[in-house]
Amino acid sequence: MTKITRWYSNQLIPWLLPIIMIVFWQILGQFEIISSSILPTPLKVVDAAIQLTSSGKLQEHVLISTQRALIGFFIGGIIGFILGLLNGTIKFFERTTDTTMQMIRTIPHLALIPLVILWFGIGESAKIFLVALGVMFPVYINTFSGIQNVDRKLIEMGTVYGLSKWKLFVNIILPGSLSSILVGIRYALGVMWMSLIVAETIGADSGIGFMATSAREFMQMDIVVLTIVLYAILGKLSDVIAKLFEHHFLKWNPVYRKK
Residue 83: which residues within 8 A CB-CB, separation 6 or more? Predict the structure, then answer.
């Protein structure tokens, strides 16, 4: 098998099961085994996407949701990384803040909605806050865990060689924890879209969540399914980007070099 054939095979195999499921779904709908009022066929969903794209509404709502998600991701990601960094390297911060972080982490987004509305109203700030909150914890936990699990012998060796605290962090602690941090970012990207679904239930007048809510009220099942597919596509795209970052920043790691 040539390299080109192997590459195409590796790229196509992961999509084999989703394609089979879509074909099976279309057959069930085509022969009315499943009613279109319960689950419209893939072709009807595609038709709805074409109509919304032609009117420009689909691009507008996707762009607005993406902006909300990215702003929340960067805010929550930076806060989570800084807290994970402080708690992982300074015992005082770990003792004083980690327990609080773990308690807040277990609170469901839906339970916070009334409080968030009182704090921020129903504007963009409330939606971005919920996304940032959801993103913060995966980044925090994986940064904290990654730093804690760096090989202590390497840190001792760096200390013996007279490395300053900054050089010790840059050359040993950060590279050693980077794999865990990137896993946290990858997981946070998925949480970002799940948090956005919740966030866009707060008085939204635009975005993918608004499309889903409006379609539900008018029983437009093809658009409801379309919004679910959009979230799935955006989530997959985010995961692909995260993998590219892993391969770029962890080229020195044999595990990632082989992939």
Answer: 93, 97, 101, 136, 140, 143, 144
